[in-house]
Amino acid sequence: MPRSIFPMQIADLSAFAKSIREQIGELDRKPGHVEMLNLLSRAAGFRNYQHFRAVAQTADVIEHWRPTLDDEPAADEDRVLKTARHFDDEGRLVRWPGRRGQQEICLWFLWSKIPAGQDFTERQVSERLNGLHLFGDAALLRRDLFDSGLVQRTRDGREYRRIERKPPPELKLLLSRVGQRAEAA
User: Fold this and answer.
1) Does one domain contain both 175 and 84?
2) What are 75-111's pLDDT values in tens digits?
3) Is 7 a member of any domain?
4) Is the pLDDT at 161 greater than 90, yes or no?
5) In the chain, at which end, N or C, are there fewer CB atoms within 10 A of the end residue's CB?
6) Other residues' Cβ atoms within 10 Å of the Cβ of residue 64
7) Residue 153 lies in a domain
8) Strand 159-162 vs strand 119-121: parallel, antiparallel, or unpaired?
9) Which domain holds residue 130?
10) Same structural domain for residues 93 and 35?
């Protein structure tokens, strides 16, 4: 049976190598061939090797995964406008949106209000979140921030830290919309 060749381009070799090292460090043995293919695929941003193969077979994987500076995605203004309705004139969340897409933008908004590079206790994070919403469920917001990969916490949940990631273009637009209303009030 002939072997299929799938090219893979790595945008950030340093991050790729670090991811491989961390994944191998979690293993208690040397990875086998298939396991190594999965490790490499995950480090490149795919779920596993099967996901990588599926993308490679249906699309030009090099062009699909090559980041370019000119191709910054445009913000979905309609989604931002609908999400902005969940904020009051002081920039606080009045209610938690029902749609997941709007919830994600709100989570990014909350993420942006957590200072970078600092550790916080659960109480400090809850107090900060309580100042940003009015529906009284800081635990829901903490869990969603963690589940979305925007904050990390210790196993016992006592300490939290913001994870630095590139926010979606909708965040900048939402911050300006909510900020404009707060300034007008």
Assistant:
1) yes
2) 889 999 999 999 999 999 999 999 999 999 999 999 9
3) no
4) yes
5) N
6) 11
7) yes
8) antiparallel
9) 77-184
10) no
